[in-house]
Amino acid sequence: MKHMKWWGWGEEGISFRHDDKPAFAAFVKAVIDIDVARAPASMPDLDSFPIPSSFVPRELRESLQAVVGAGNLKDDPLERVVHAYGKGLRDLVRIRRGDMGRLPDLVVYPSSESEVAGIVKAALSANAVVIPFGGGTNISRSLEAPRHERRPVISIDMGRMSSVLEIDEVSRLARVQAGALGPDVERHLNEKSWTLGHFPDSFNHSTLGGWIATRSCGMQSDKYGDIADLTRAVRVVTPTGVLVTRPVPSASTGPSVREMILGSEGRLGIITEATVHIHRVPQKRQIYGYLFPDWSRGLRAMTAIAESDASPSVTRVSDANETRFYFATKKHETLAGRAKTAISKFYLERIKRFDVHRMCLSFIGYEGSEEHVKIQKRLVDDIVGRHGGFCVGTEPGELYDQKKFDTPYIRDFLLDRGALADVSETSAPWSQLEYLYDGVMSRASKAFAQIGVRGYIMCHLAHSYHSGACLYFTFAFRPSDDNHSLEQYDVIKSAIQQGFIDLGGTLSHHHAVGLEHAAWLGQDISPVGVTMIRSLLDGVDPGHNFNPGKIVG
Amino acid sequence: MKHMKWWGWGEEGISFRHDDKPAFAAFVKAVIDIDVARAPASMPDLDSFPIPSSFVPRELRESLQAVVGAGNLKDDPLERVVHAYGKGLRDLVRIRRGDMGRLPDLVVYPSSESEVAGIVKAALSANAVVIPFGGGTNISRSLEAPRHERRPVISIDMGRMSSVLEIDEVSRLARVQAGALGPDVERHLNEKSWTLGHFPDSFNHSTLGGWIATRSCGMQSDKYGDIADLTRAVRVVTPTGVLVTRPVPSASTGPSVREMILGSEGRLGIITEATVHIHRVPQKRQIYGYLFPDWSRGLRAMTAIAESDASPSVTRVSDANETRFYFATKKHETLAGRAKTAISKFYLERIKRFDVHRMCLSFIGYEGSEEHVKIQKRLVDDIVGRHGGFCVGTEPGELYDQKKFDTPYIRDFLLDRGALADVSETSAPWSQLEYLYDGVMSRASKAFAQIGVRGYIMCHLAHSYHSGACLYFTFAFRPSDDNHSLEQYDVIKSAIQQGFIDLGGTLSHHHAVGLEHAAWLGQDISPVGVTMIRSLLDGVDPGHNFNPGKIVG
What we know:
The structure is a homodimer.
Chain A lengths: L23 H9 L25 H11 L4 E2 L2 H6 L6 H9 L8 E3 L4 H13 L3 E5 L19 E5 L6 E5 L4 E5 L4 H10 L2 E2 L12 H6 L7 H4 L2 H4 E8 L2 E4 L12 H5 L8 E8 L1 E2 L3 E9 L2 H13 L6 E5 L1 H9 L6 H17 L8 E9 L1 H17 L3 E4 L1 H9 L3 H10 L3 E10 L3 H19 L4 E9 L3 E10 L7 H18 L18 H20 L13
Parallel strand pairs in A: 2-4, 3-4
Antiparallel strand pairs in A: 1-2, 5-6, 6-10, 7-11, 8-9, 8-10, 12-14, 12-15, 13-14, 13-17, 16-18, 17-18
Helix pairs in contact in A: 2-5, 11-14, 17-18
């Protein structure tokens, strides 16, 4: 089983490079005072860290071995470290320091639902803790065991359960095992001209089970729906047996147990498979770039598009800061490209009279038949035009489409050079978005000032719904005190999160609760809401054996 | 507060009439052997029934009176009887016999959330049972107290809380009190050119709170979504305080407490208000009639429409039996109308070579701009044509649209004349629909034979989703033994419900669980699913004071 780097995102050997992006170094120097030419910190050697020994009672180990076979039980340091955390900024900072928290004692790799059931049975008999592990991309601290957990901790890696089991071509449904990574799912489906259409930033390294357990959302979710919409049925090994729901399109049996599993973060059981919507690969799929004169008009255009008869597959608009970032990551241009850029600049500044420091880049995607795409784009172009924007063709959109999964590599590149960068996202009604945005930006500025750093924060709107949208913030700064970098990070992150809550947003649009956002849960869904979730979790798992501490303590 | 007839559907003075429908009498005689000319049973006098006296401890009555005022506490027989049951066939049969079950002791009419909270507090102090009551249209026995309940039973009628509190025109959201009836909601919204777009058959007599508590679905839900999609936020008085969720478009905090309230049937608390999607009244709204040569081709056309770039607001196709029923309820025609009918018949039989006994009537609706409606209809017409069907214009659709809320009056008309008629609906994946339909029809036939009656069962597909649709069955028969009519009804109804479960459907698409469907819950969502629901309900309401016995016992 191949895992991501224990100390960073993605595969060994793949990293972000800046030397082919002429504007990048100056931009980073200007906004967060980082010299990208500086030699990156060298990665520590895992062997140099003290790894507490693994403790698994003999009887439990034997039971587990009987279930999955000796070859599918692992307790070497690398396996345990890889399964200790997700890939949040906090996780990477901690792990690079050798602060691994409470490592799992054992990693088990089941190959079937009955093996998962066997693992759960053995674990419950021994009063052990089980934590499901998909691709390990979580950034909300949903994967770590409680630091002072005294019971044996078992990480259940679902990686061997990665098959597309069945395709119902008439109903446009596929039955897929929970451990299937994004590329596994798409490859199998694409072979038969189908697609799931779920493309979160983590796509290459995250799994179907993980998406469901954290209520994930993908880039084309405007068309395909988020994972909550896509997931028609689940099978879950719970403390009291296997939950099996039916792949019906809609049902009035409430409270819905299918919905209880969405976002349950392993606390109600181990998801083993799901039946999900699939779609025919569309005849045409295009993402166009648009420019708006400013953020307000970009937001208002998105509000209008969501009310119109158009139904684009992607709606996204960056604020001025993120637009600057986008242009700062452009590659070296050919002579022809440079000429084109000069002409574009002239057009923007002299003809359209755009202020290039305020303008906002937007991406809008269309899918369907040739004709459908044409009709949809015409409807959208009209709305964009009424809000002072215009289409800049498919080139920026294609670039975005190619590079969309690379952002976490930039985060690691910056971390290697001493800067902390992270994301925080929310959703709110259309009427609140600009107010929320202004408030969060101002709180972030104050927080940067408080810790005495020059920080940068940028934002885009993504995922339009009937009544609102997601605002996705990315921030970065160079800590003024490397010995307290996480404390400084907490000041920024908390200011942003508290801003979401105070200004009408939710604590997270698609990154779940985990431990990272749990402090805001009561303010988001009210204390009674927390009580309701606790009633459900405690009722199903009275011993707190399933990923204890997440969502509610 | 105006209520429906205690012994039937709708308003006093409104009923179905057959004398303007020339084909109706012969049709009913042929299919269920009922002579519509026969004098209907006379309605019993409520005073002739023994009404057990109301028992409310003095302290509880005084507390409730302090909360809502003496004028808003009712315990006269009519009030108690009206709040005893919903309007299922079983309810009407029982109430007409004087079998009122466990009548509520008291009906209270709060005017605000704080009054609801006061009622709940007083009720919990006295260990009383509370049952929320919206319009009383429920057909799944979600409104009745357990027959042997020894604690005081209080029905909380939400009728005074019927306002649209706030419209957010930018976010296209409205905050509406739970007791608002369908027409209340639409009237207030329409005044400002908005619509909720939720039109269940019960629309005229059901409430927003009731829709949420039973996961209701409306006729145009293909476009507007069902109530689960429409409801962005809820406020609910629970045993432990007021649950307040935020009207955000999407959130990854799971398990979602908003979703737990959907379909909770009063077991988690009393819904006081919700924030719901609203839409601008569309420029154009049209429902077209279509004819298909047979049911199979009608189903396949709907499957294809759901995959296409078209997104109609209504998709519906009746089987041959329901198509016959539809034509049997047509009114007297003018001479011109009769000529047109003769020409249509000639066209159908001679030109299109349709077998009029197998053909299926369909309704497909479109909403949006003039242009959007035109494009959508063209896409749909192509698909219909490829499946052997054709458009028959807007006339049948307009008639359907006008008459859509009248079906329950026909049920009462038949009941007055000795026939039992009821509905049962499910949803299933596209690939299962024809198989499920065939199986249910054959089980119903066997069940009719078993009780020795000539029964009729008909069906339509409604509510298309990506992966499947709802099949809605209506059945009627004249019991062969009037002393055991409900037992005979149970034979038919159970055969149909068991068919749903055995053949891949869910126990109900939009009529909730209540007591009526509870027997099938474990087979639908697996025994573990039942355990999960029970954990939640017992955790939130350990004393079983909130509508006890519904969903799970």
